[in-house]
Every structure is written in structure tokens, then in C-alpha cells.
Amino acid sequence: MTGILAVNHFLTGDKFRELHAHLISAAEKSGINLIRKTNLQLATEEVTADFVLFWDKDVNLARRLERKGLPVFNSSDSIALCDDKARTYIELQGIVPQPKTLIAPKCYFKTDMSEFVENAVCVLGLPLVFKECFGSFGEQVYLCKSVDEIMRHVSEKPFILQEFISTSAGRDKRLEIVGGKCVSAVSRINENDFRSNVTNGGTMIPYTPIDTEMKTAVTACNTLGLTFGGVDILENGMVCEVNSNAHIINIMNSTGVDIAPILFDEIRSRI
To answer: Are 42 and 6 in contact (CB under 8 A)?
Structure first.
């Protein structure tokens, strides 16, 4: 069996190289020849394979590969839903618990959003969380204590404003879901930042999720159509974010659970 590992050409740091090498090695042990291809290469090359493991967010490329008949994991629709925090919120609204969220109105250039921001503060209170709709590793996410502070982050980029769950400041749970089952979980703690991401200085320890957390995480992934995903759950049980290609090395180092072979077994069962 041959697969394509689709990655971003422009993300070249050590953590990405380590992840890609690990996936290729795990695939080989599972009897799969996994060939790394970047989105730049795939933009012009014709490829044949039994499947594509799409470890990127280039939704247009993922959709193009699907249109050529290639099974893509995760699907382009699922990646698109997870990549846009506004779309994630809308898709999960009323299905799993989430912090109260308001989505900025669409505009085509940087404009005066003060009326929306002031109205949002009346609904959500202060402080609140400002999130650009597109971003990873906790970047473009800010805790804002005033209207002026919110306005400093407003640009032409789409964004959401979200209720701040103070009991979960610097704390959450990451549950890794594969094929509708929780296969690994950690508790993440950051004493110096309201964001718990390890990239922002957080630490993680192995965690055994309670039944409601597992049900919430599985429901979120199933609703978004994910074959695999990382679900971030706040201390009060609310879903913070869902990741379509969560970084699995840190959680493996923390728990000893290698998600890669579980993932390849699930892919094999689906093609």
C-alpha cells in the first residue's frame, strides 16, 4: 500500500521534520510506503496513491486530490471546518458545549468595527478572548481587558470574540480521537499564560478523561467529519477548539502512546 503524506512546503522547522519522519517510519512498520510531498510539489505534479494523509490546511489542494478520486484523510470539508474557528463554532453549536461566541461581520478591508466590539462587550463581558479565525499553536489569540485592547487586534482578517472562562485560564485537556474513539489524552497547564498550548510555554501530563469529556470529544469529531482529531476541552467541559491535524509528538512523549500506528490502522480499514 502506498500513501502520500501531504505537508506544507513553507513550514520547515525541526518539529515539523520530526513529525514527518515519525509518520513515515510508523507507516513503514504498518506495511505502508508513505511518500512525503509538499503542497508546492502537489500543486503541479500528478500523483497516484492508495490514499493521502493530509497534514496541512491547504483545503483547495485537498479538495482537488479528492476530485481525482484519492481518499484524503482528513477530508477537505473537515479541514475547512476546523481551520476556520467561526465555522467550527457554528457547526458544533447546540451539539456540544462551547463558550459563548460572537462572529465579526464580514468585511473586505480594514474598517471600523467599534460598534460590533462595543455590542459584543455588552454580551460577553470583559475580559474576553479575541481570536483570528485562522491560526495555529495559540497564535493570534489574545485575552483583552478593554475595548481599546480589542480594537488593537482588529484588522481586515476575520475574527471571533469569545467568552473568557476564567476557571480554565492556562488549563485544558487535549483528547486525541481516532475512528470515533479516544486513544490518548493529556492535561495541559501554563502558569504564565491564559493559553495552555505547549508552544506558548505550557506543560502536559497524562490524563484519564471522564466519560462526558470523551463523549464530547467524539461527538465533536464525528460532527466535523474527522477521521482523527485533537479536541481541546476546558475545565468546565466546553470545547475550546478542534484540530484536524494536531501535533502528535508532544502527546506521545508525555503519555507513551504513539497515535501514528492507530491512525494507519484506521485509514487501512476505510479504503
So the answer is: yes
- Going by C-alpha positions, the residue among 153, 97, 103, 163 that lies closest to residue 129 is 163
pLDDT digits (tens, 9 = 90+) for 21-69: 999 999 999 999 999 999 999 999 999 999 999 999 999 999 999 999 9
Host H or E run for residue 53? strand 51-54
Nearest to 82 by CA among 5, 39, 161, 135: 135
pTM of the entire predicted model: 0.94
Residue 231: which of 87, 80, 96 has the closest Cα? 96
Which backbone phi and psi does 202 adopt, to 5 degrees? -75, 165
Give the three-state DSSP class for 41. Answer: helix
By C-alpha distance, which of 237, 131, 225 is closest to 175? 237
The 3-class SS string of 66-99 reads HHCCCCEECCHHHHHHHHCHHHHHHHHCCCCCCC
